[in-house]
Design goal:
Low-confidence stretches: none
Oligomer: single chain
Number of strands: 0
Strand content: under 5%
Length: about 100
């Protein structure tokens, strides 16, 4: 098995294979998360003329907790998209293979 050069076209094929898989997984997970977050924010939004600083601080604290969770989910989805791509894709003129280092 002879190695092939990494051309722009081949790199684009690899990137596109990863990108659409990551986008599909993001839609399946992030849309429901955004709906729940939107519902929570609107149900705890201060009423007209009732600006409560304690409520604003509580919501800011909640966002500080949710941000690392959001980032962890994002990384996990991208790793899964990469695994999906590596396990299923064969392009017309090349394929990717993980081989141990010599």
């Amino acid at each position: 098995m002879d190695p092939v050069n990494v051309t722009f076209g081949r790199a684009l094929k690899i990137w596109w294979s990863f990108a659409w898989r990551a986008w599909v997984l993001m839609l399946l997970v992030m849309v429901p998360m955004e709906i729940v977050l939107f519902w929570y924010m609107m149900s705890h939004f201060p009423k007209q003329g009732a600006g409560n600083p304690a409520e604003a601080m509580r919501m800011a604290g909640m966002m500080m907790v949710l941000w690392p969770i959001f980032m962890a989910v994002l990384i996990a989805l991208q790793v899964q998209a990469m695994r999906w791509m590596l396990n299923t894709v064969r392009w017309s003129d090349f394929r990717l293979a993980l081989v141990p280092r010599e």
